[in-house]
Amino acid sequence: MTPTAYAVLDLDAARHNLSKVRSCAPNAKIMAVIKANGYGHGLLRIAEALQPADAFAVARVDEGIRLRKAGFTKRIAVLEGFTCAEEFKELLHYQLDTVVHSLNQLDILATVTEPAACPVWLKLDTGMNRLGFKAKELSSVYQRLNQCVGVKRPINLMTHFANADNINDPKTLQQIDLFNQTLAGFAGERSLANSAGILGWEQSLSDWVRPGVMLYGISPFPDSTGEQLGLRPVMELHSRLIAVKPIEAGDTVGYGGSWTCEKPTTLGIVAIGYGDGYPRYAKTGTPVLVNGLRVPLIGRVSMDMISVDLGTGSHAKPGDPVTLWGEGLPVEEIALWADTIPYTLVCGVTRRVRIVEKTDFEK
Ligand SMILES: *Cc1c(COP(=O)(O)O)cnc(C)c1O
After folding, report:
1. Distance of CA 172 from the midpoint of ligand 1 (Å)
2. Protein residue whose Cα sits closest to atom 1 of ligand 1
């Protein structure tokens, strides 16, 4: 018997998506972004599948340490860098690359006496206004960094896009221009592109690309699916029907009674809820596959269950398979129904959901 709520991972698809990155950016090295537990897919499992990448990127030092402890020797960049001397010590010990984005970090880096102990990615803020130094500070920061014996040369250079998912927004080109102008003449390898850059902005390709969401087969753009871009989705989310019953006109369904039955129909109760990471804000009408057929979600999502309208004449019965996203039901579509982005859906799958690999399970 399959577990009640489970996610199936197709790791061949992850490898396919990595080769798609290679074909989009044939001259770039690939830093595979596997932060946030590999976008919810499982850090170590995804790292293993993406071994052909040239480096990994994670958000936090902890995530890098987990990879090192599991035996991964590949270059690993920490995108948020370190925040204090103690964390920096760990970063050095585990030989992680750090992003440098604040003066506080420069002070700590200046204390290192071992030559070239730490590879760095100096981050320029070209308009995201999150992490990074402003263009006008850049040359003085670069000089200070260059005086640190502990910093490995050449200093690598990076920035991050704010609006690259909107292919009509000129801001990305402005960010690219500012990056190129500010850093002209500086030595060091460069990295700009996230998934949206790789797929939508050829001008953003440089020495290194940093794909995240596309590796998981998900489109970074709001108006397309990964499959339409030649990617293959890695995660499917499944569960089962646990109850089937008729309901009458006038009955309401779920907490708050937000959905009222207009004509007699058959109600299905599915064992999935926000306690599994199914989005609490998925609206009535969100498609769900029951026995492979689309039916609408009705009423509110609870912690452990959702309700669906199976329609009259349905032969569905308790135990029947349900797909929340997967083949025939792109996670991008569910994200639109829940007023969110697919990133949050895959990242949000909780520990209660059993993760199984397609190879040992369904092939
Ligand atoms: C998360 C992240 C990425 C990957 O972004 P995607 O949109 O998932 O491709 C790249 N660079 C930085 C700095 C990030 O934080």
Report:
1. 14
2. 212
